[in-house]
Amino acid sequence: QVQLVESGGGLVQTGGSLRLSCAASGLPVTMYTMGWFRQAPGKEREFVAGISWSGGSTYYADSVKGRFIISRDNDKATMVLQMNSLKPEDTAVYYCASANFPWRYDMGTMSTPDYWGSWGQGTQVTVSS
Q1: What does the pLDDT look like over 13-42, one tens digit per residue?
Q2: Which is deepest, 19, 23, 33, 52, by most CB within 10 Å?
């Protein structure tokens, strides 16, 4: 049983920062690429950022590149999304995800939901103006 649990969401002002964490269990985290998606009300789920199984490679959506930083600590089985310079359009439920197969390195295809096998329950991020 794979379990991914997000935490750290909340309400922040425009220009502020927020740190999201994802705690993983039930899978060998050293073998799985992980990432973050977000979904706003009435919109489709959107890829935000991904990080390779080793943590050596990262991939960001254009909308967050330069503002968000993804990282992971495999010893602690956690993944972090540091969000800076937040904008109202960042408001969404943020989901942690793990890849559908181990040892994935084809990070150019991470934007499609088919890449991912397990999802967390989501954490709400609200950015006020």
Answers
A1: 999 999 999 999 999 999 999 999 999 999
A2: 33
